[in-house]
Design goal:
The protein is α+β, with helices and mostly antiparallel strands. Helix content is 47%, strand content 21%. The longest helix is centred in the first third of the chain and has 80 residues. It is rod-shaped and about 125 Å long.
Length: 238
């Protein structure tokens, strides 16, 4: 028959084993609970991140769709006017300026034409306002502070710097340019351009385009709240 000492020893062993078992069980429960909460937090983070990303996508898509629509309408107006034998440069300047004034997301509107392709009168406009020494029709209407100003396009014959004109004119198809820097007024601006060719009888006569400031887009993206210290990056095709 077990003695009192033996029973006490067995009781102590059972208590120790029970305590160890309870400790292990509590630890396992804590780990499981922590894993459940961590998975839930990750799921919530992904869901909130998807919402922020969808908002950013919608914002970028809307900005480009509005700009493409405005540029397409501007080209259509210019082409239609020329078909009605209205090739007055001041008249077409009005189309460009009005398009810019009525579309706040645009930084600039412009058109460029091959030598004498617009109205055959390049020689009459050498170094006139909005022209350079070639006299080609190359107006660039752009925002500068609170004003809308006119300047001639630059570097439009230079591969690379002039891709905003060259790619659409030579390729005879619409182009959305990779981000590039261009001098607007007295400052360099990171931008992209929508360039639409004007083609007649298989010949690229010119290009009608608009510019969007990527600095402005960056500011809009920065206003979108991303949870858990996330951030949004807009990537170009390259």
């Amino acid at each position: 028959m077990p003695t009192e000492k033996t029973l006490r020893s067995l009781a102590q062993q059972l208590s120790l084993r029970s305590a160890i078992a309870i400790t292990i069980l509590v630890s396992l429960c804590s780990l499981v609970t922590a894993a459940i909460f961590e998975n839930a937090a990750r799921k919530q983070a992904r869901e909130l991140g998807d919402v922020a990303a969808a908002q950013a996508v919608a914002e970028v898509r809307n900005q480009f769709e509005r700009a493409i629509g405005a540029t397409t309408a501007m080209r259509s107006a210019i082409v239609a006017a020329r078909r009605q034998n209205t090739a007055d440069r001041h008249f077409h300047d009005g189309i460009l300026r009005l398009t810019l004034a009525e579309n706040s997301e645009l930084l600039g509107t412009w058109t460029g034409w091959e030598p004498d392709a617009f109205d055959g009168r390049d020689a009459e406009f050498v170094n006139a306002e909005g022209h350079d020494a070639t006299g080609r029709y190359i107006p660039y209407w752009h925002r500068e502070d609170q004003d809308i100003k006119l300047a001639p396009l630059t570097d439009y014959t230079q591969p690379g710097a002039g891709d905003y004109y060259i790619l659409a004119q030579q390729g005879q198809k619409p182009v959305l340019l990779e981000p590039y820097s261009y001098k607007v007024g007295d400052r360099m601006v990171m931008m992209t351009s929508i360039a639409l060719p004007v083609v007649q009888d298989g010949r690229g006569l010119g290009v009608v385009g608009s510019d969007l400031s990527l600095d402005e887009m960056h500011s809009r993206m920065a206003q979108i709240k991303v949870p858990f210290d996330g951030h949004i990056t807009v990537l170009s095709a390259k």
